[in-house]
Amino acid sequence: MAIFTDIFFYALIIPVIPFSLTIQVGIPEDQVQSWTSILLACYSVALFVGSPLAGIYADHTSSRRWPLLLGLVALAGSTLLLCFGNSIGLLVAGRILQGLSAGIVWSVGCALLVDTMASATGVAMGYVGISMSVGLLLAPVIGGAVYSAAGYYAVYYIAFGVIAVDILLRLFMIEKKVAKQWIDEGRGSDPLTEPDQPDVEKNASPAAPISESGEKSAGAVETRQNGAREDHVETANTTDREPSEQQAAPDHPDMGRRPIIILLKSPRLQAALYGLFAQAEFKLTVGRMGFDAVLALFVQCTFHWNSTAAGIMFLSVFLPGFIAPFVGWLSDKYGAKWPALFGFCLAIPLLICLRFVTENSIQHKILLGFLLAPLGAALAFSNTPLMAEISYVIEEKVAQQPGIFGEKGVYGLGYGLFTMAFALGGVVGPLWAGYVVDAAGWGTMTWSIAIWAATGAIPIFFWSGTK
Fold this sequence. Notes:
- The protein has 467 residues and is an all-alpha fold.
- It has helices spanning 2-12, 17-25, 32-59, 65-84, 88-116, 121-150, 152-171, 176-188, 200-203, 218-231, 233-248, 259-264, 267-286, 291-303, 307-313, 315-318, 324-334, 337-353, 362-400, 411-440, 442-463.
- The chain is globular and about 65 Å long.
């Protein structure tokens, strides 16, 4: 829900930002596009910088709830600045605060999902993908319709309402470790369910006589002692092993190093982060977040479509994204390598074939929809497994060297790095696509983005993991 709230607010204000610049601030019409790009860059830079810091903070706190609440409160603050800001400085501050809040929500939210669904991380990341798709699909439509019907401030009132609901949900959220403590306490209060209590009657010999003084015979005592020794033999062996293990632990090359260094040295994580960077480039170029940058302008100029018609066309990109939980299940079962590689390999020819859409004819409109639909599926296959791969890498490190990341782990940091890679791709992709379209045309842009996708597939093939 927190991730949906962040994406929903991001996309909700897309239709009203130009009006905010002209009406609220007084920016001339010919400078609106430039300032819109600057505001987007401010958001992306803040997201890039804030994500790993938020992840590190979340890994050092006792609860995921409070960082999430901090992120949502920061999102409410950015909403206030963007709603009532009457100068370009306030709008820039609002976008920076929005980017910082997004970094917190994404890093901590994904880490919380891993904490809760450790055995089904891929499925959880699939539902994250669905929340992104729903938010990006619905929010601009709602924002544009509300602005037309009720005016500028009504759009932000919707944002305030969604944020308030999300904050209430965070206050009532019960983390898995807290629920587990309650369950353990409940079991501990019931002697019938206490696993650590020895069964004296079971250990005692049924034939052992009891003397007049109430003492058991020597045979019964010996039987009970033997049973006690058997119950504690595993504990004794573990205790005997602990000194040697503790002496060997510091000799491991990664012990004592900073977690971020350990993670970044992993070829699997490097492959996942670069894949996410490359995937974000073409996702945010042909997806809704890159809508105004490239594709919307293309269909407007080529097909003379308005925003409503173009939005309907984008359903063909987002509806296939609902297969993301299934893709996540495949990743949990077989690893991230082959699903992600399939997504990239599917996207490459589809991106190249977009160059054949050039005319305002029914055939070319059908061709565009025909290419965008499987491209939406390719986005789900390329994104969801790599998001889950972050947790797979951390689990592999912990399995190789238990305790390497301490008691609380580094899932927050891992997904902070994921958000950094995604944010960087979100900046480079639309800027690259816009520049190439202006300089060399639509056809050149499509195959150049396909090259980016190909570069993402190479490290995935060589270094991503399987199960």
